[in-house]
Amino acid sequence: MKRFSRILFYLRNQKRNIALYVLFIILSIAFSLISLTMLAPFLQLLFNLEKLITVKPVFSFTAAGILNYLKYYLSYIISHSPSGKQNALAAICGIIILSVFLKNLFTYLSFRVLSPMRNYVMTKLRADLYAKILDLPIGFFTDQRKGDIISRMSNDANEIEWSVLSTLEGLITQPLTIIIYLGGLIFISAKLSLFLLVLLPLMGFIIGRVSRSLKKQSTESQEQVGVLMSILDETLTGLRIIKAFNAEKLIGGKFLSTNTTLNFIRNKMNFRRDLASPMSEFLGVIVLSIILWFGGSMVLSSNADGLDAGGFITYILLFTQIINPAKSLSTAFYSAQRGSAAIERIEEILKVPLTVNDKPGAKTLQTFNSRIEFRNVTFAYDDKVILKNINLTIEKGKTVALVGSSGAGKSTLADLVPRFHDVTGGELLIDGINIKDYTLASVRAQMGIVTQEPILFNDTIAANIALGQFDIAHDKIEDAAKVANAYDFIIQKEGGFESNIGDRGSKLSGGERQRLTIARAVLKNPPVLILDEATSSLDTESERLVQDAINKMMQNRTSIVIAHRLSTVRHADEIIVLQKGEIAERGTHDELISQHGIYRKLVDMQEVK
């Protein structure tokens, strides 16, 4: 049950509904039991297979005692009316119809209670998983396939819904059915039921042994689905390049190989799962045959401890009703094994520790007043040192540029400021206070970020500009678009600011997408700007428009600029040259040119004069 602890946790406030569900199931089984026990002994009496009881028997709380007491009243109806047999038959039919109606009524009511509980659990599970994905630090996703995470949210969640929650009914109903019917069998003949108490656990042991490997195979299956989703995501993202390099066969081969492996694993799973029902039925028939042999021998030898032919037929009839629940229970057990693998994969995400979070009693950063300071900052990831002994002060209103070759640590250093990562050594301070003493939300509220790749969402232009802000006046959105040199192209769209930009802004050009991200940062109006190579992927005309928008946005703001094109940072107040995670050079453009060092070489290569 430990593996289902999260599902049980979600059900902790559903105790009333769980109690109602169990009650309805018990009542449903009880009325089913009544309808079955009415048949054999009473029909024997009705069709003269047994003598009428004319003397009222003494009531005793045993199977034989209760049946004899009911037979007496049925005999009374038959013997005291010319049409007594028809009346007795009508009474039996009426009781059976009423019992079956009540049985199905309570079965329906149990479904009415179960369905909302099942949907509630899935809603909570998906909500918690999505909330966890939003909370996880960015570093977590560098080691994860995006397709695998999507697979856990979709395929694994669906597997839980259909393999666990859909069988929740079976995991509760079938054991209750077996227990109640078994109680009825023991009540009819305790001696004969001793065989069941030995043989039924033996059946369960055999089925459990066969299903043992199902969980492992289900885990492998879900992992392969994750790989498939990753390949599909890469294909959709890079379709232009795949076609340009005639790589359809290569990518298609990867997909086909993974798909074939998935097919093989799922076939093995299905073969083992499909074995559950026929195997449990066969084992049930073996047990039935044993009961028939020993029970029949007891009745024939008059050594049945009060069990007559009618009672024995009722006993056999009730036992046959255990076989189907046993089959359903074994199938539900197999499905639960499959679902437990999906639960574990989702639990892996939900139990990932949050390395970047608010410390208890963290204060709110109301305003940025003076400076951002790095003191002997070191950052390592997976035991690999990315930044070493960084000492840097960024005064309010100043522009600091980070330059250097790829992999030098520029983006990582900038990511420390909004706490996408936390430093592993030294301190990062804002206004003289350790950044970890502030809440995450208040730190990020002071910052605007424009990345090299424009991050846009499949929504309207206005919604993308106003991202993260509510009840923003439309004229403010327009003003931000004007500052970002985006207003002119927006109003030329058929829907203007309400135009949908497609998946990742696919309906816009590169320059238009970048100007929307700048408009987003302008509307936020943050005191600190982080610009991560915001113009490096643009053509000359788009770069000029975007750079002009950036220059407007940077006025009177503290800016951290990452740039490969050194022409865009020559007017920075300080240029930091990073090499292998350390500050190799620092100074203004003119100072670094005069040093004839790393920066000068980079400038000469780009022919910046």
Fourth CATH level, the homologous superfamily of the domain at 2-350: ABC transporter type 1, transmembrane domain
Low-confidence runs: none
Structural class: alpha/beta
Instruction: Report on the biggest sheet.
Output: 6 strands, mixed
* Beta content: 5-15%
Lateral strand order in the biggest sheet? 6-7-8-3-9-10
CATH fold-level label of the domain at 2-350: ABC transporter transmembrane region fold
The CATH class of the domain at 2-350 is Mainly Alpha
Task: Give the integer mean of the pLDDT values.
Answer: 78
The rough form would be described as: elongated
What CATH architecture label of the domain at 2-350 applies? Answer: Up-down Bundle
The rounded distance between the terminal residues' Cα atoms is 71 Å
The strand count comes to: 10
Fraction of residues in helix: 55-70%
User: Using only CA atoms, what is the Rg?
Assistant: 37 Å
Keywords for this entry:
about 600 residues, ABC transporter transmembrane region fold
Summary?
The chain has 609 residues and is of the alpha/beta class.
Task: Give a verbal description of the structure.
The chain is α/β, with parallel strands linked by helices. Among the domains are: 2-350, Up-down Bundle (ABC transporter transmembrane region fold), CATH 1.20.1560.10; 457-503 and 513-523, no CATH class. The chain contains 23 helices and ten strands. The chain has helices at 5-10, 15-37, 39-46, 63-79, 84-135, 138-141, 146-165, 168-188, 190-210, 214-237, 239-244, 248-274, 276-300, 309-350, 410-416, 440-445, 461-465, 474-483, 487-491, 510-524, 540-554, 589-595, 598-606, and strands spanning 371-381, 384-395, 399-403, 425-430, 433-434, 447-450, 528-532, 558-562, 574-579, 582-587. The protein has a six-stranded mixed sheet, sandwiched between helices. The protein has a four-stranded antiparallel sheet with strand order 2-1-4-5, covered by helices on one side. A hairpin with a 2-residue loop joins strand 4 (425-430) and strand 5. It is elongated, with a radius of gyration of 37 Å. The model has no long low-confidence stretch (mean pLDDT 78).
